[in-house]
Amino acid sequence: MASPFLPQIDLASFDAKSNQGLSAQSISHIGAAFAAVDQSNLDNAFALLQQHLSSIALHLDVKALSIEDITSLLNAGAAKVFVSLNQLKELLQISTIAQERIILALPGQQRANKEEIINAIGETQVGVFSPQVLDVELVEAWLKELGSTRPPVYVSLATPSLENALRLLKLAAIPIIPSTQLTTDAASGKIPVADLLLANAKSDRPDGLFTTLVVDERGVALGLVYSSQESLAESLKTGRGVYQSRKRGLWYKGDSSGDIQELVSVSLDCDEDCLKYVVRQKGRGFCHLATPTCFGDYSGLSKLQKTLQERKASAPEGSYTARLFNSPQLLRAKIMEEADELCNAQTKEEVAFEAADLLYFALTKCVASGVSLEDVERSLDAKSFKVKRRKGDAKGQWAEKAGLSGNAPNSEAKEQIKEAASIPKKPEDPAGFQDGQIRMKRYDTTTISDAELEKILRRPAQKSNEAVMAIVKPIIQAIRERGDAAVLEYTHKFEKATSLKSPVLRAPFPEHLMQLPKETIEAIDISFENIRRFHAAQAEEKPLKIETMPGVVCSRFTRPIERVGLYVPGGTAVLPSTALMLGVPAMVAGCKKIVLASPPRADGRLTPEVVYVAHKVGAESIVLAGGAQAVAALAYGTESVSKVDKILGPGNQFVTAGKMFVSNDTSAGVSIDMPAGPSEVLVIADAAANPAFVASDLLSQAEHGVDSQVILIAVDLNESQLAAIEEQLHVQAMALPRVDIVRGSIAHSVTLQVKTIEEAMTLSNHYAPEHLILQLQNAADVVPLVENAGSVFVGAWTPESVGDYSAGVNHSLPTYGYAKQYSGVNLSSYQKSITCSNLSEEGLKNVGGAVMQLAKVEELEAHRRAVSIRLQAIKQ
Ligand SMILES: NC(=O)c1ccc[n+]([C@@H]2O[C@H](COP(=O)([O-])OP(=O)(O)OC[C@H]3O[C@@H](n4cnc5c(N)ncnc54)[C@H](O)[C@@H]3O)[C@@H](O)[C@H]2O)c1
Ligand SMILES: N[C@H](CO)Cc1c[nH]c[nH+]1
Ligand SMILES: [Zn+2]
Fold it and tell me: pTM of the predicted model, to two decimals?
């Protein structure tokens, strides 16, 4: 049963040291409170809800607020709101508000009659609150008039006394009493809380004690004890579990054993003859036999939590749980794996089995982060208070994986923005936010050490190679052993494309699979032509040929790699532009066999843009698979997938690990382009830069994935110039459909303040970004200072996205600092160079001596003779 009375608190001073009323702790023991809210203390109300949501059911007089503020308070967890008649009518229109959360506040001093109330509330069963009833006798008469079917009635006790309060309680009205008049200390002369709690309680025992159930915060029964008014008062006063022992009198639990209890809350059952104490048990447990409960050990989730918490404190070396605690990447992989298995479970047994696995790993994550089951349950309860619910659509990537159609990919993100806007205060900024704004952290490079800078510029952690390889190796093995069947199995599993019967689509590709709007065809055609031109211009005009000595001619010519496999990612976004970037240079180089691979949608089809590009570049086939399975199929070939000589293209960690593995396997005979991972950009901006342009460039890469990183180097910008960029970043980010992804990437993105362009370039060359954008006064003059970068974008009119799609440069570029040693994809990525030597007699005579001498040094006689035998022949 809820608290039979409500302490009235002053929002402005609650929790503060100056608070003269009951302490916050005592109020949370009672579990409910009342307060009047207006604009002056609205922020305090939100703060209080955030801090005490689960421990205090907050009842708020909101007559001075707008409907928006009221719904925000309900959303934030206010238990009940006391409203005017007009507000009541408006709130009843919102179907998601439970009616018992709305209480009609009757106007003023007047005694209300039954008709007045019934007229006001119609058929709706809402409570009634009379704010200024001075005369208890009047209330008595009034309650009688309302009769037995009356709604819950709250009465503000303007002249509080124990006697008045008890009279109202006997009438089953709920008195609201200023907390300054209440006490847990009987000696203080105020109204004792214990007396109010037990006002209507009646013991069913001859000794007059109350049977008391003791439970933990999850509601698990710890044991059964007895209470008296005195022990309850003592418990409320000390904040501990204090009971009435039938043999020893007052019993302060744990005084002799040390296993004390912190009191969380006290309440009565429905017929008020039994108390429930919620406690936080310390020490070995509640039972004198040192078990957590008097009914033995914990079971289920509570038991698992206890074990995990113990393991976290001292995990046996080598235990699996210790491995999980030490490797966030392994834990993440297991959570994803188990979630996927749960989704695929069919029978009741399978669902229970897989759900148990998922809960185990989820709880390990909680314990590793210092979160308890109680915290999780509090969060669940808080969600149940929401008035404006999210639609519950799956996010784009998951919706696609699950084969949902017609699910607007980012509707949930939009809901989140709306919701965020309707909640005025948040206690802490989540990742990516600062002071309520999506903002990158700022550092002045003159005030940080090199070591700190190194840490700041570290790319977001990736799964360890070991963890990813452990996932990828069995996949590759399965493809080698079982070919097409295994490719299909993984596609069914990861892409949910269960209707797919063949892993390959062969050219000529059917027209109906590449139906596109005219504008898209035009855009692809323009981009195709620019990319073709830029890559064709990279071809050697003629083979290199020089005479190193008279008669010694060396030359070099290139040949296309015969068979290439092009991986087009498709996990989190559909990327036909990557098909262009990989396919066009392959076509220009003259590769004989071009095989594309890309994960299909859940309906088993590829996005038509990718099929159209495959058609335009003359691809032989498209492998309808993603991840390591696609890479393995390309590397080794299967019954229907053509083996290739080189695999190119970006991808996630499974794709990259697959590429690394097959390129290291000499039996595969396959090479790869480079490690190209999560997108990144570094923007260097000075005072001439347009803040909106700078922000838009940063966001264009931040929206790729939560593991993307964007860096701004601000050259000699003052506070207002920096603030202008930050403001733009926030405003533009909030308007993006992928704002939830952006928040993730901005959380590990930074602004670095430097004084000069030289300092900026030193930093940039050290970071070696995938994309470097120069938004500087004389941007072109700075290009000669670039030493390491995948691709450079010069000046205000060159957004990075032109390079992603249409300018002609390639967007498949080295990330993760590999721009220090790798080039992005270019024509030579599809070619090999062959060198050629051609000597005349004179030439051999000129160079032969050097060759023979060096062969002699290396003691390779056959090498020496291959020359001497010819020189002798020339002599004869
Ligand atoms: N650097 C560049 O030039 C460049 C260009 C474009 C894209 N990108 C990057 O490429 C990446 C694309 O990644 P993506 O995930 O969107 O698509 P993806 O196609 O690379 O990966 C999706 C595949 O991963 C596999 N997979 C997913 N979860 C798995 C698991 N638990 N176990 C085994 N396999 C699993 C599945 O087979 C799935 O088909 C992004 O990080 C993007 O930023 C980089
Ligand atoms: N910027 C990405 C490479 O890091 C490529 C891309 C594709 N589509 C849009 N952008
Ligand atoms: Zn991009």
Answer: 0.57
